[in-house]
Amino acid sequence: MSVQSAPATTGTAPAGPTAKTQPSTTHLAAGATGADEPAATRGRTSIADVVVVKVAGVAAREIPGVHAMGGGLSRTFGAVRDRVPGGRSNVGRGVKVEVGERQTAIDLDLVVEYGVPIADLARDVRENVIDAVERITGLEVVEVNVTINDVHLPDDEDPAPETASRVA
Predict the structure, then answer these.
(1) Partner of 89 at 20 to 30 A CA spacing, among 3, 57, 69, 128?
(2) Residue 98: which of 58, 50, 61, 62 has the closest Cα?
(3) Cβ distance 71 to 94 under 8 Å?
(4) 125, 108 in Cβ contact below 8 A?
(5) Cα 41 to the chain's mean position, in Å?
(6) Angle made by CA atoms 49, 55, 60, in degrees to the nearest 5
(7) Measuring CA to CA, which residue among 104, 127, 126, 107 is closest to residue 48?
(8) How big is the CA angle at 143 (ends 53 and 7), to the nearest 5 degrees?
């Protein structure tokens, strides 16, 4: 089986029969210049932290059993913002990232539903986040750290008031 590889754009590789070639991968930061280069490699692509934050936040929320994301104070401010007319929910709440040229590391703060096995949920969240971030951004995810901040109990819901006021 023959593996074709693209020539390296950065660094130097040893020459001769001992040189190993790497399979072609998406180079996010490296780019070549010049009219003799293929169009796909002319220029540079960089991905902002906020892109990875949003992709990871959406992917984590897709897993059943994730009730909310973020720490206590973050969730409180987020709940207020969500109720303000014209306010938007923050898909990045509870997500912190470090983005390099080719790799990223992600930290997630979650609130889980009561009764959901936490170890299974954390595994499913990791798998979904890694898959989404690598597929959409092309960055290699080196780690996804999951912190469970709280458990949402069924009776924690804010009951809707039946009357406007208890006193007249």
Answers:
(1) 128
(2) 50
(3) yes
(4) yes
(5) 26
(6) 120
(7) 104
(8) 90
Give burial (CB, 10 Å; 0-12/13-18/19+) of 52.
buried
16-54: pLDDT as tens digits: 444 444 433 344 656 667 778 888 788 888 899 999 999
Question: Do 105 and 33 touch, CB atoms closer than 8 A?
Answer: no
Q: Tokens 């790497």 correspond to what residue?
A: 22
| Amino acid in the structure at residue 159 | P
Contact 125, 63 (CB under 8 A): yes
pTM of the model: 0.67
CB 100 within 8 A of CB 140: no
The whole-angstrom separation of Cα 110 and Cα 121 is: 10
pLDDT score of 79:
52
Q: Which residues contact 142 (CB under 8 A, 6 or more apart)?
A: 103, 104, 105
Helix axes 49-61, 118-137, angle to 10 degrees: 140
Answer whether 139's CB lies under 8 Å from 103's CB: yes
Rg (CA), the chain: 23
